[in-house]
Amino acid sequence: MSSLARVSLSLARREMVRFFRQPQRVIGTIAQPLLFWLFLGFGFAGSFRIPGMENVTYLEYFYPGVMLMLMLFSAVFSTITIIEDRDAGFLQGVLVAPVSRLAIVLGKVIGATSIALIQTMIFLAAAPLLGLTLGLGSLAMVVGGFVLAGVGFSTLGFLLAWGMRSTAAFHAVMMVFLMPLWMLSGALFPLDNVPMAMKAVMLVNPVSHALEIIRAPFYAEPAALLTDSHYLLALAISVVWAVGGLALSMIRVNRRETGLAPKAS
Question: I need a labelling partner for 147 at 20 to 30 A (CA). Which of 101, 116, 244, 263 fits?
Fold first, then answer.
């Protein structure tokens, strides 16, 4: 195994161990989207009437969106360990070690995406309760969508956390900046019948396209999706988002930072 892969996997494994040693964190990241899904799903059940979707309940419509929300919270909050590692001196030790800076980015991103994916797959088990069934091909496409969304969210969290000095600031940015990205993705309501200005924002929002590649396999066969220009465009944008996030994270890590050295006692 190459040095890059070994270091990346070691850092990713560290993130996983760290996460599962905090059971309250595991419960919290799953419980919040679950409560959102149940409360909003039942609350809007009587008023959800969309032309062409008469047979779709709001619980069913909101289901892919709440899984995307779970990916958001879990993946982004997992990158908060960057700030904690800096405070503990661990990050400085990794930065001065003779390892590739790419390994640092990949280790954090793989760890955060894996944590989010495990939790989302647990939530995915509820699909049969809604009458949704997935063949192996459709399941692979949904999981692939989760991975792309997880990488996109993880790199976004990485970029935000890298330059911050406190977890409080990270939480504030999370609520002010990231939640609107999710809310304007089509997770809560369809893109149709919204003001044009809002629709334009939703269309340029990469989270909207991540939601599309997660939702579409529930309602169409893989062969049909692979010839659907709308799905292929959403897939291409999601790939660009994930790859671009990794590239920007690499650039960010390679920049010389001030204030990274441990404070003298």
Answer: 101
